[in-house]
Design goal:
Helix content is 51%, strand content 17%. By secondary structure, the chain is α+β, with helices and mostly antiparallel strands. Strands 2-1-5-4-3 form a five-stranded antiparallel β-sheet, sandwiched between helices. It has a five-stranded mixed β-sheet with strand order 7-9-10-12-11, covered by helices on one side. It has a two-stranded antiparallel ribbon with strand order 6-8.
């Protein structure tokens, strides 16, 4: 069965069910017909016995059957029906003329049961036939004086039952064969759409064309649902494949950009090291400048490698640990850290207006790192006479369920065409030319916020400045 086609298995299954149903139906019909015919025979010979008994006249003083006036039994007989009267000893007293030289069998068991007053039916052989006999005892004053036997041939009953058996068997066989052929044909027709679906799917597989879809024109049945499911799966596969291609392309670009970014400080370090080797201690000023360049490039290299490690963890799906933190405490730590890293004054606003007990569920170190990235960018692109502001606001605005930690500057702003790409790794817009950096900071900040269920928002106007905001969800346990 495992190697058979589905339509053949279905054909065998419902043909088998039909065959079993016909067998049960035939058995019930045959049994019902048999009982009905035998009941009709029993009723007819029982009625005949009653007629014969009613016609018998017995003298009250008589104790012998030969003194009993018997009716003419030939009056009650008919073709296939035989009558016989015997005395208590089993001697035949009278019988119908259609019996010829034969007689109905009378055994000692029959006489014993008759003596007990029991009337009963039995099937016995009569020549080359089988007959059904009804034995009726004649009882006078508690004594058996004779037995009336009426027998009827079962030839007609057995012939009818035999023909019925042949008819039902042949009909069942013909019906099952016809049903099997018709079922196979119907199954083949029903599975044609399935074959077209399989052919279309195989064609898509061979051609590796995930843009193709399976065309099905039919009712909204199970096959329609299957086609819709397959087409949906193909669409998801196409999107996943396209996404994988984009990821692979980004990976290649990332490796190329990382190689380029790493090559620059390494080249500078190597050049200065070779210069120091050749120069020795002959030019102390030049030697000091070379060592300073090496230290600066080493620091830049360390920062770049650290950023690359962050992004590698992001790509690996790193899970971060968070805990509820008072927003005011978080901002105080961020402001205190900036005093020693920026080298210039950073204005603050909104800290005093923060509600008491307002919490955010965050990893404090990562959020402070994201703040430092935004402040570092703002300081880098804002002139010395410009202003950089670190602020915070809670509630209100378009999203009252989030708090906003923002950094606003008065730098050159970000051109419209760069705003969609600015969070891409290693991307550097027009305003970044001539400035140090690797173009990874905003990518890292965006990843940090996404891990916290937030996002980085940007608003900017060219020539006026930019504002980057870290939008974080409020901890629902805040008091």
């Amino acid at each position: 069965m495992k190697n058979m086609s589905l339509r053949l298995r279905l054909t065998i299954l419902y043909t088998g069910v039909l065959g079993l149903t016909l067998i049960i139906f035939s058995f019930v019909v045959y049994l019902t017909m048999s009982r009905t015919l035998y009941a009709e025979v029993d009723n007819s010979i029982s009625a005949m016995v009653s007629s014969v008994v009613k016609s018998i006249k017995i003298s009250r003083s008589a104790f012998e059957l030969d003194k009993v006036i018997l009716p003419d039994v030939d009056v009650f007989s008919s073709p296939g029906t035989y009558l016989q009267v015997v005395d208590a000893g089993g001697k035949i007293v009278s019988r119908s003329g259609n019996m010829g030289p034969q007689f109905l069998p009378m055994s000692e068991d029959t006489l014993r049961m008759a003596a007990a007053g029991r009337e009963f039916y039995e099937n016995v052989g009569y020549g080359d036939k089988r007959i059904r006999i009804f034995n009726y005892p004649l009882i006078l004053e508690g004594k058996l004086i004779g037995v009336v036997q009426v027998g009827r041939s079962l030839f007609q009953v057995e012939m009818v039952l035999g023909r019925l058996k042949v008819l039902m068997f042949s009909g069942a066989v013909i019906t099952v064969l016809a049903a099997g052929l018709m079922g196979f044909s119907v199954a083949r027709t029903a599975f044609k759409p399935m074959e077209r679906i399989i052919e279309a799917a195989a064609s898509i597989q061979r051609g590796s064309d995930l843009k193709r879809r399976i065309d099905y024109r039919g009712p909204r049945d199970e096959l329609y649902t299957l086609v819709e499911t397959l087409n949906g799966m193909l669409e998801r596969l196409e999107n996943m494949y396209r996404r994988l291609e984009e990821i692979n392309e980004a990976q290649r670009r990332f490796v190329a950009d990382a190689s380029h970014e790493l090559r620059t400080p390494l080249t500078t370090i190597r050049g200065n090291a070779e210069l120091l080797i050749k120069m020795g201690d002959s030019q102390p000023d030049t030697r000091a400048e070379a060592l300073a360049d090496i230290a600066g490039e080493a620091e830049r290299l360390t920062r770049l490698v650290s950023n690359l490690l962050y992004l590698a963890r992001a790509d690996a799906g790193q899970v971060i640990e968070t805990c509820p933190v008072q927003l005011r405490d978080l901002m105080d730590r961020a402001v205190d850290g900036l005093k020693f890293t920026t080298g210039r004054r950073i204005e603050t606003e909104g800290l005093e207006a923060l509600p008491e007990g307002l919490q955010v569920n965050v990893n404090t170190d990562l959020i402070i790192q994201a703040v430092n990235i935004l402040v570092d960018n703002a300081v880098k692109y804002t002139p010395a006479e410009g202003e950089v502001t670190l602020g915070v606001s809670a509630g209100g605005g378009p999203d009252p369920e989030k708090v906003s930690i923002y950094v606003r500057d008065s730098g050159p702003g970000i051109p419209e065409e760069d705003r969609q790409e600015i969070f891409e790794r290693f991307y550097r817009g027009k305003t970044a030319r001539g400035k140090s950096g690797s173009g990874l900071g905003l990518s890292i900040a965006q990843w940090i916020l996404q891990k916290h269920g937030g996002r980085v928002a940007l608003s900017s106007k060219e020539g006026i400045g930019s504002c980057f905001a870290l939008l974080l969800p409020v901890d629902q346990r805040s008091g």
